[in-house]
Amino acid sequence: MSLLPYRNDHIITVICALYFDGDKSFVECFHEHLPLSHNNDGSMSYEVLMPMVALVATTVSHPFVGLHKQCTNSIQLYVALFEWHSGTQQVAEFSVTTFTDIYHSNLGTLEFIQTNQQGAFHAMMANIYSWAR
Fold first, then answer.
1. For the segment 24-75, what is each residue's pLDDT rounded down to a tens digit?
2. Which long-range contacts (CB under 8 A, 24 or more apart) does 25-34 make?
3. Largest separation between any pair of C-alpha atoms in the chain
4. Rounded to an integer, what distance in angstroms lies between the CA atom of residue 116 and that of residue 109?
5. Which of 5, 37, 54, 97 has the fewest CB atoms inside 10 Å of its own CB, making it the most exposed?
6. DSSP letters of 44-101?
7. Residue 24 DSSP symbol
8. How far is residue 34's CA from residue 120's CA, in Å, rounded to a whole number?
């Protein structure tokens, strides 16, 4: 399983804008609640939270955001199929009702990576934190 889709530049950019920008950003206000991981050299690194990544990956996959050009093929395919599920294209509004399944799919993928590839998962989440900062 590739970990690269969640390291997409557009996902990092949106995570930065939503959670890191500003004096009263989410990360600034709730920094003490972010997970820490141990690096190979013994140092500690902050990580982003799984729901942060899952939500942004869901929104970046939708054309509404306008940052979807390099999203993963599977998410783009899902959105494309969803919009054509009736036989004619019906552009889907981004809403909880419409995209809950994609969000939960992203969350499930992250949980799978965390369970089955712990080292890679923590490195990925720490890298996303570092790049978004």
1. 999 999 999 999 998 888 899 999 999 999 988 887 754 433 333 334 444 4
2. 27/133, 34/129
3. 55
4. 10
5. 97
6. EEE---HHHHHHHHHHHTSTTTS--TT--HHHHHHHHHHHTTTSS--PPPP-HHHHHH
7. T
8. 18
User: Can you tell me the distance from the alpha carbon of 26 to that of 77, in angstroms, rounded to the nearest whole number?
Assistant: 31
In this predicted model, which residue has the larger pLDDT, 86 or 32?
32
Instruction: Kindly state the tokens that stand for 104.
Output: 């939960």
What amino acid occupies position 75? I
Q: What total of structural domains would you count in the chain?
A: 1
Closest to 78 (Cα-Cα) out of 2, 5, 1: 5
93 versus 36: which is more confidently predicted?
36
Q: Any idea how long the chain is?
A: 133
Residue ranges making up the domain that contains 41? 4-132
Q: What are phi and psi of 129, to 5 degrees?
A: -55, -50
Backbone phi, then psi, for 27, in 5-degree steps?
A: -65, -40
Q: Which two tokens stand for residue 47?
A: 């990580």
